[in-house]
Write a structure and sequence with these properties.
The protein has 235 residues and is an all-alpha fold. The chain contains 8 helices and 2 strands; from the N terminus they run ααααβααβαα. Helix 3 (68-91) packs antiparallel against helix 4 (97-111) and helix 4 (97-111) packs antiparallel against helix 5 (125-145).
Amino acid sequence: TATAVVRLGDLREILKAARMSYHQYQDDPIPFFFKILVNISFYCALAFFALCLACGFYYIAELSEEYTVLTRKVLRTMIYVVWSVYALLWLVDGFPLSTVLISALCQGAYYTLLQRFPFVTLTSPGLIASCVAFVVSHIVWYYYFVDPYTPMYTYGHLLGFFFLCVWSVPFGFFITVTVDNMALPGAGSIDSASDDFGGKKRPKITHVLLAYLNKIKASIFGSDPFAQSISHKAQ
């Protein structure tokens, strides 16, 4: 017992010396273990937030399937709002006209998806142009905000701007459009959900991604016997 107490005391002295050495070289007043605990908690909370966000997107996708006309009107209104914001940024705040025009054209590429909404083909010119526009809009705004003559904005300002003017419309299309089965590689292996009239619903992009992720998980970890038994009983 005495030996164990001595060893415990030595261990505490070693940890104390390591902590003092850490603070001496790092010049950081925050305790070492507390910082590790906070970082772990932060990333766990971030993962939980991402999971809740994914569930929310999935619910919105299911809701938009029931109210297609309303969803189309909402997306069209969002594009008009973003166009109006771009005009105000140019007129009021003096944002560069070239950047505003390119971003407005990118929103115009998203607008073409409303012609056949909610259906979309993966090889359609409208979808390809929208993907290119999504990348181009990020590039032009990135170069604007990193310009040395541009005022310094906080991360909160940038996040709010990108959420409304760059991400909101394409993410809205991403979770609401429906994929044409015939355009999918290996579409025969992805099951479509049945509707109330006995027909087949075309899967949304979120459903397709979920199906591919399930196939990857099954190929890596194997199939779940419990899930197979539930599926067999349901049949």
